[in-house]
What does this fold into?
Amino acid sequence: MANLQVLVKGEFDRLNKYNLFSANFVALLFWLVIAWFFEGQELQIFIPFIFLMDSTMMTILLVGATLFYEKKEHTINSIMISPITERQYLFSKVLVNVLNSLFTVAFVSIALYLMKGVTFNYLLLVGGVIIVTVVHTMIGIRIAYMAKDFTSMLVYFIMYTFIFLLPSILILVGVISADFGRYLMILPPEVSRILINASVGEIETGKLLFGYGYLILLSIGLYRFMIKPKFMDYVMRETGV
Amino acid sequence: MFNVKNLSYQYPKSKGNTIDGIDFEIKEGEIFGFLGPSGAGKSTTQKVLIKLLPNYQGEIEYKGKSLASYHDEFYEDIGVSFEMPISFSKLTAMENLAFFKKLYKNTVDVEPLLKRVGLWEDRNKKAGEYSKGMKIRLNFVRALINNPKMLFLDEPTNGLDPVNARIMKDMVLEFKQQGGTVFLTSHIMSDIEQLCDRVAFIVDGKLKEIDSPRNLKLKYGKRSVKIEYKEAGNLISKEFSMEEIKQPEFCQLLQSKEVETIHSGETTLEEIFIKVTGVGLNG
It folds into this structure.
């Protein structure tokens, strides 16, 4: 537990030193500037979009970038010959991203309240953001495993976004009918959209339960079958093999 | 300390074994050198011993227990200095060390270590601004922060100038004098000769020879003395066996001739290596 705290604190320090926090913060300010121009119904649509982007795309980019730096600087070797387990290492990545997403929730919520007087169901928002961030941290780690360098990581990221996230965004902005959404429920970003949308609007309890259940099972499945078993292969590759 | 029996390792995408059925023992308090050309299996053996490559075949015992049975406590015991620079480039040397230090139960004060390797003045400089030699020295300090009982050093003087290489070697010898054990991989002969109590030659994943540098030199060297002397303006070379130097002819030659050089037939580790393996070290 003590080592997990060290890993998490170390990760936050590095996110700060490598300016990844700053980049994330600039993105948040950008979303808030855009939000300034929206009112009423448009704002109700836009708010979940901010949280969706942060807990999906920003999460993948952040975890991908930290793993990329650890790969480039071979520091993962040094971490793995320390008395920590691969579970602690992977869990620290998840925890850092969840805390980062919760910071976004707090910052954006306060800003939107001060700017527009908007409030929403914070409990559902926090719950949704946590599970969505967990799943997308796993996806980000899996992408980092596959990528040979930063460019290929970005290519995989764009492929993921295009294939899985684009339909959800098109539904969110009304290009695709929301009725079509039920067929996209197996796509992680679509389930994520539904869970985060629940904080600003009505949602069927069944859908909500399915969404949480599906993402929890997906997290466990990703960790059990795609993240943990491949971790030592990834480390091995980074040791110069 | 380590007992390795019939160790083999094959990388998942490789066709053959990178390490092929090797046996050796690392005794407590010794510096054990692993010598071989690039790609011979030196680093792979080290990675298996430090548990970075788990799916090996054969038996490895550490302090009488299977290596596989160790978890965190093993890493409390060892320090590893990798060949390539390993540090968070945007963090200072002190921040790098502080991060890793917090992961261990038993740690040392880094100030004397940084002073010794000449990095104290630059301790608050970002590691990314360090030269390669400084990064290697920082690696070495990182390897020592948990006061390890055993050190794994992969090409520890690679990229260092002679003065810093000397400091590093002195520190390794002091570590040994204080009871530490060292596993050292290198292709630099002088490091092996100056530091190692025993040395193993590895080629194509197989161990060809294990012994002390002295015994290897005795085994593979020529027991002879070669003398070069001037006679009537000509340079003459003559070789005497160890038995022949007891004869009057040898003493007479030394007394009566203008001797220019005397060389023993002692061979170098590099020559032994080539003789044993038929492979050049940089090959």
User: Anything to note?
Assistant: Chain B has two domains: 2-217, 222-265. The interface with chain A takes residues 11-12, 43-44, 47, 50-54, 71-76, 78, 80, 82, 84-91, 95, 99-100, 102-105, 142 of chain B (CB under 8 Å).
